[in-house]
Design a protein that fits this description.
18 helices; mainly alpha; single chain; two-stranded antiparallel ribbon; 466 residues
Length: 466
Amino acid sequence: MNRIKILGVINAILHLAISVASVFLASYVLKGGPVSLFDFFYIDALGAFFILTISVVNFAAALYSIGYLAKDAEAGAVNEKKAGTYYGLFNLFALTMYFVTVVNNLGMLWVAIEMTTLVSAFLVGFYNNKRSIEAAWKYIIICSVGITLALLGTILFYYTASRDGGVTSLNWTDMASVAGKLDPKVLKVAFLFILVGYGTKAGLAPMHTWLPDAHSQAPAPISALLSGVLLKTAIYAIIRFTSIINICIGTAYSDRLLVFFGLLSLGVSAAFVIVQKDIKRLLAYSSVEHIGVITFGLGLGGALGLFGALFHVFNHAVTKSLMFFGAGNAVKKYKTSDMSAMRGVISAMPFTGVMLIIGAFALTGSPPFSVFFSEVMILISGFGQGLYLQSALFLLFLAIIFGAVIHHISKVAFGKKPSDVTAEGEPLSGKMAFIFLLIFICALGFKLPALLSGLMTSAVGIIRGA
């Protein structure tokens, strides 16, 4: 085993240990309540849920990276030094995402999300070619504009909290405790800045334009992290501010905005998914879709809608990561991401081809996979609240995207394999990463573990201001 593989194995073991620790942390929080340390770190059920989600995808990406970088090394794309840089940035990226979920201070939350941008930009441009560097710069510029708006929203939240609530800190716990005293007019303006600012980082349309470029140019395991969990850290930030505004002025204002941006994201992604020719850009626009699904669910506001939205956070994280792993294998094999030139994957790479087919049906919400159930929860909540037009549009966009994704992926998997592409085996570590994620995708379609269900139920109460 060469040094690059040894480094990858050590990295994967580290993230497996973190995943196990996140399960124990979630159990502790669920039984004993929030964990607070030095009034700086604060982990409640909402934070523990996001930590668990991040840790699962981080481990899968670390496991997949072993074989992925080995292939790069064989092709001469990386050496030991570059591989060391990759794993260093990988772990720094993971650390920044964890930091988002554990800080109590909303100012530090802003800093942590900006840190995720700066670190992950180096990973987007990892291959140091023209397209990847251009995508990295576009990512930095657009997300920095968004994060600036989020900073302004945070300042406005602090302004009314200090003036009307007597709070002298940016701690979320302090602001939430005086939320009923805050100025509704200031909060409404502040929330607009928060939603647009952090919504840019989350990939909400029309602020999503950085996302297809960044996701398509990053290494496949990093694309999985970007789509699976990075976008969710911005959703986490929006949720924290939403809970404050819900206590102050009720849910109607934030609900309308979230439903609007959720449906807009679904509509935009549906249009782009239909005409997409690049497999990684196809998956990137699918991420815009699923962020729209989550936001729509959050906007419905009822217990079922919120539960479904949180459930979808986890479901999308594991399913999209599996799809990016499959796309990464196919791109390496065919040396192109153009789907018109990528045919017969199931013949050239049987395991990857099967995973792509299963993943495509899971990602588009087919039963009995887990995404189906979270989307059904959201849909039932919408119709149950009498939002017939919005729910019908939600269902229409999902149907369009289902047809488009299955059409594209089936051609990739079952088309005629080019004569110059030979069948070959795939790395064991990569197969293990697929199977690890597939267990969640399938199992959660049949039974929801008590720990995960309890975390999401408690998190729903936090969002509703209980």
